[in-house]
Design goal:
alpha+beta, elongated, 25% helix, 8 helices, two-stranded parallel sheet, 7-stranded mixed beta sheet
């Protein structure tokens, strides 16, 4: 081989011979494969398709509806609240009370109760009806009773509260026969109280039947509807001589109107009563008692909108004079506040003014 041919051989080995086939790269082969699989004209990698224009009519309509709604709320706030249940009446019911709350319930819209909505503007709108609002705790063996006996004692304790404070006949002023039947007939002081409290003569502060029973004079007041709102609970512990001592702390909300009045503008007042009753289920081996009856240890109440004069044996709602009650700052009570024990607000003579009803 001549020197010229050898130099050309070396040069072509480095630069490649002209016209020699070139092996395509992996990227080039992938692009070629995708082009073969696609149909139609391929789209360039920098091409852009503008979005279709949207109609703005829907936004204009939505904005107009919101503006009108805000205007209505601003001009007629109370009416709008009434459309949606009158201060929580259509709100979710409260869970049962398992322990003493730490604070009073929040404020409600200032709406007066009506015949159609007697709990409007009241925290009680979200409370349970009747016996359902009195929580009964799980039973466990206590004192002389096993768990099944404690469960029966708790159920009968609630039966006593229902018979004393929710029975429609008792609320109309009739004798609380069912409640009395659950009381130990051998408890002399209680039997003396019952005879004096339910006698035809006027009661005194010591033997006022309202300490245990809720009653309205038929000719003076009538219940609005057939629902009484309640909230409270039972607790229990071992008492003296192995007895099972049950404590009831329950608030009752009674909507009432003047007797015989059912007009559109009828005044509705809520008489609110919170009672604490301590009941003892005694061991018959230790205390003289009758099966299925309880002994009373104590009973006390807080009451608003139920009368301020001398005891009559009936709640006396202040129809027409609600704005004239005693406003002494030392005698004010939030009847829905269950965070404090019953009876901690001094009553003395005269009225305890409810801060709300």
């Amino acid at each position: 081989m001549s020197d010229e041919e050898w130099e050309r051989f070396l040069r072509e080995s480095v630069t490649g011979a002209s016209g020699a086939p070139v092996e395509p790269s992996a990227r080039a082969r992938e692009v070629e494969r995708r082009l073969r699989e696609r149909s139609g004209q391929p789209e360039g990698w920098r091409t852009y398709t503008p979005a279709r224009p949207r109609s703005r009519t829907g936004w204009y309509v939505a904005g107009l509806v919101v503006a009108v709604s805000l205007l209505v709320v601003g001009l007629f706030p109370q009416q709008v609240v009434g459309w949606f249940g009158g201060g929580g009446q259509d709100g979710a019911p409260l869970a049962a009370e398992s322990e003493r709350p730490r604070e009073a319930p929040g404020a409600e819209p200032d709406l007066r109760p009506t015949l159609a909505e007697p709990f409007r503007g009241s925290p009680a709108a979200r409370w349970a009806d009747g016996a359902a609002g009195i929580r009964v705790p799980p039973a466990r063996a206590t004192g002389w009773m096993d768990a099944a006996q404690v469960e029966r004692a708790l159920r009968r304790s609630r039966d006593f509260l229902v018979a004393a404070s929710l029975d429609s006949r008792v609320l109309r002023g009739e004798r609380p026969t069912k409640a009395i039947a659950l009381l130990n007939p051998h408890q002399k002081d209680v039997q003396d109280y019952l005879r004096a409290a339910l006698s035809p003569t006027a009661p005194t502060a010591e033997n006022d039947p309202l300490l245990l029973f809720s009653r309205f004079r038929p000719g003076q007041a009538q219940l609005v509807g057939d629902v009484v709102k309640t909230r409270g609970r039972l607790t229990y512990r071992e008492g003296k001589r192995g007895a099972v001592e049950v404590t009831a702390d329950v608030t009752f909300v009674y909507p009432v109107a003047p007797a015989g009045d059912s007009g559109r503008d009828t005044e509705v007042i809520r008489t609110i009563v919170r009672r604490e009753v301590v009941m003892s289920w005694d061991d018959p081996a230790e205390i003289v008692t009758e099966p299925g009856t309880l002994s009373l240890v104590s009973y006390v109440l807080d009451m608003t909108n139920g009368g301020c004069s001398a005891p009559t044996g009936y709640f006396v709602p202040p129809f027409g004079t609600a704005d004239e009650q005693n406003t002494d700052e030392g005698r004010r009570l939030d009847p829905y506040d269950r965070s404090e024990p019953v009876g901690t607000t001094g009553t003395g003579d005269g009225c305890v003014t409810a801060t709300r009803s």
